[in-house]
Write a structure and sequence with these properties.
12 helices, 5-stranded mixed β-sheet
């Protein structure tokens, strides 16, 4: 199972909207087949492993990180293929949360006389590996991560000159691996106007689909000559309101930019509605890399599910430096937004990242 989990990791970034899955076939104490899934190759991990095992699959045990599918999608049911190959036992790390499967794969295998076991010791690792997929299957919306680079006193920008970086090159390279694992990335028009950012995945690793770049821009102020617009290849979405210029919208669409009108009650581009829309597009994960106002909106509205903050050994101080989350804030200490499942990750000798999940009120 450990090897199956390692194989599954090789598919990260290459499987969306499918989960990352690894499979290992063992017969007489020897590994005879291995496989992992990538969206471009279509075949699921179990099929890849069966192909390698050949006739040795008969009477063997399959170790897989996720319940074999039982329905026909882009490929036929893996459960049927395992039955036909003569697999004797299946050990899975977790049940598939997809409503189209969810236990029916196991049921089909058991009905065919195949022994099925869930390795509960591997379940946490398997769920963590496919956290966005699990979240999307249970909620119908992408897992939303709020990412920020902050000083030790929680600041993301100075009041005047913001040349240079808060974090090191090591931390910024780590951010690219985080971007690689996401389907979409979002920022605000303020960040685009200030930095003329690209917001691309520069990890150099293969992806199953392009990183969708999103800009919250109520009035469509994004410059037509900005880097994001110039580079747009059906991978840039600008979210505006009904107050945006129709002419401006046509100009952006002419340049290959997708424009989506979502107006919130306060007249701004609606972040929560966007998250729901992304879920309908089978987007599994969204990372927010924005400014103080959007960060607060993501936290206050509950649009964000978790944070990933990179901390640098610096202090800006002052009352004008921008905090990681601005907006109205909470007026009382007892009303603070709370987090749990906090993890601290070492990034470089003098930097660390904090990963934590918003505590949802029941």
């Amino acid at each position: 199972m450990t090897e199956a989990l390692e194989l599954a990791k090789r598919g990260v970034g290459q499987t969306s909207p499918n989960p990352a899955v690894g499979a290992v076939i063992v017969r007489d104490g020897q590994v005879v087949g291995r496989g992992f899934h990538t969206y471009s190759t279509r075949d699921h991990a179990e099929i890849v492993a069966l192909r390698e095992a050949g006739h040795q699959a008969r009477g063997a045990t399959l170790y897989t990180t996720l319940e074999p599918c039982s329905h026909t999608g882009r490929t036929g049911p893996c459960a049927d293929a395992l039955i036909a190959a003569g697999i004797q036992k299946v050990v899975a790390a977790m049940e598939d949360p997809n409503p189209l499967v969810k236990g029916s794969g196991f049921a089909k295998l058991r009905a065919a006389g195949i022994e099925v076991e869930i390795d509960h010791s591997a379940t946490p690792a398997a769920e963590q590996l496919n956290q966005p997929f699990v979240h999307a299957m249970k909620t119908g919306r992408p897992l939303v991560t709020l990412k920020a680079a902050v000083t030790l006193d929680g600041k993301i920008a100075a009041p005047e000159d913001n040349n240079g970086w808060i974090t090191s090159a090591i931390a910024r390279a780590h951010v690219q691996t985080l971007r690689h694992s996401h389907d979409a990335i979002l920022t605000g028009i303020g960040t685009v106007l200030a930095d003329d950012c690209h917001l691309t995945d520069r990890s150099g690793l293969p992806r199953s689909r392009p990183l969708l770049r999103i800009v919250m821009d109520s009035l469509l102020r994004i410059p037509l000559e900005s880097a994001m617009v110039r580079e747009a290849q059906d991978d840039l979405l600008v979210v505006c309101t009904s107050a945006a210029s129709a002419e401006r919208r046509k100009a952006l669409e002419f340049r290959g930019v997708r424009v989506l009108e979502l107006t919130s009650e306060d007249g701004r581009a609606d972040l929560c509605a966007l998250v729901q829309w992304l879920g309908k597009q089978r987007c599994l994960s969204l990372m927010i890399e924005a400014g103080s106002k959007i960060n607060w909106t993501a936290l206050e509205t509950g649009a964000a599910d978790k944070i990933y903050f990179y901390y640098a050994p610096k202090i800006l101080g002052g009352l004008q430096s921008l905090p990681v989350a601005g907006g109205a804030g909470r007026k009382r200490r007892t009303d603070a937004i709370e987090f749990d499942r906090v993890q601290v990750h070492p990034i470089s000798p003098n930097e660390f990242a904090v990963e934590a999940y918003l505590r949802r009120m029941s």
